[in-house]
């Protein structure tokens, strides 16, 4: 009876306002939406065609725009954010709750997502990226400026950071790892595939590379040293403590081990040979002797 009639009138009200908002020019529509209650504004925007909704939200102040986007369905929120300017989209994403922000970023094109993340403060950006599926997160991180990318990778959980770095091109991955702290860098390198880890380490400065190799497991360190160029391997081994260096060299096949030992300072070479097993030491010396005779 009366209750049904009131409810029906309420729904009709929204549709009537929706029709009005859809029909008037965007500036006028934005003025209307700005003045009505946020819940009503969201109900209207939810029902307006996406392009028009974006034009309206583009003309509404950032605070009200974010409040509306917070309340509309995720598909509409993403469509609005996709169609407004990146600066406006970023202001909205900054202000909406993190879970909703992550859902929006997950549903817009990667280039738009990156443009938004670039403009959002690093902590919020990391919270968003943490919740975005890893391949999408990697696409975003690939596009944003390296300093911002490193700040995000620094702040997300190590497992997520590793998934991102695994899926970013090796040159960009190396630039990111170069800028994150050594503990986080080592955690990432430990978790990614050894081939990718070696590609990254190959692009790092020798000191950062050595600091990472010191901090990962001996098996991972050996896998990296096996795969990088001998000169890079020697630069790394030169900078790590002799016991660690010997543990790595012990796991590297004798030819590569000999190439490394030949390139490091004699004192370091002797310390390594002193600490490896006799069989390995003999193998290194035999290869070096053969090489010298050749």
Verbal overview:
The chain has 294 residues and is an all-alpha fold. 84% of the residues lie in helices and 0% in strands. The radius of gyration is 28 Å and the shape is rod-shaped.
Overall morphology: rod-shaped
Q: How many helices in DSSP terms?
A: 23
Q: What does the average pLDDT come to? A: 90
Total strands: 0
State Rg: 28 Å
Could you give the order of the helices and strands? Answer: HHHHHHHHHHHHHHHHHHHHHHH
The main pleated sheet reads as: none
What gap, in angstroms, lies between the N and C termini? 102 Å
Q: Which range does the strand content fall in?
A: under 5%
Low-confidence stretches: 1-9
Which structural class fits the helix and strand makeup? mainly alpha
Helix content: over 70%
List the defining traits of the structure above.
mainly alpha; single chain; 294 residues; disordered N terminus
């Amino acid at each position: 009876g009366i209750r049904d009639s009131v409810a029906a009138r309420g729904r009709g009200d929204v549709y009537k306002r929706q029709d009005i908002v859809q029909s008037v020019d965007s500036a006028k529509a934005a003025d209307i939406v700005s003045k009505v209650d946020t819940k009503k504004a969201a109900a209207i925007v939810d029902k307006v065609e996406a392009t028009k909704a974006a034009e309206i939200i583009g003309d509404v102040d950032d605070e009200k725009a974010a409040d509306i986007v917070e309340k509309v369905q995720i598909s509409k929120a993403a469509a609005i954010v996709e169609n407004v300017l990146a600066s406006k989209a970023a202001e909205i994403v900054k202000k909406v709750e993190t879970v909703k922000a992550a859902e929006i970023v997950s549903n817009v094109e990667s280039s738009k997502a990156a443009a938004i993340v670039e403009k959002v403060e690093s902590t919020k950006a990391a919270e968003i990226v943490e919740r975005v599926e890893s391949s999408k997160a990697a696409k975003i991180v690939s596009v944003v400026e390296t300093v911002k990318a490193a700040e995000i990778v620094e702040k997300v959980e190590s497992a997520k950071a590793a998934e991102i770095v695994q899926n970013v091109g090796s040159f960009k991955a190396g630039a990111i790892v170069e800028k994150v702290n050594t503990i986080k860098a080592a955690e990432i390198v430990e978790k990614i595939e050894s081939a990718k880890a070696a590609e990254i380490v190959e692009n790092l400065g020798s000191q950062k590379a050595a600091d990472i190799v010191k901090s990962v497991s001996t098996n991972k360190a050996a896998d990296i040293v096996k795969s990088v160029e001998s000169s890079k391997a020697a630069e790394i081994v030169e900078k790590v403590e002799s016991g660690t260096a010997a543990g790595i060299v012990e796991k590297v096949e004798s030819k590569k081990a000999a190439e490394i030992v030949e390139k490091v300072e004699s004192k370091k070479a002797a310390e390594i040979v002193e600490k490896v097993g006799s069989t390995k030491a003999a193998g290194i010396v035999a290869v070096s002797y053969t090489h010298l005779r050749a």
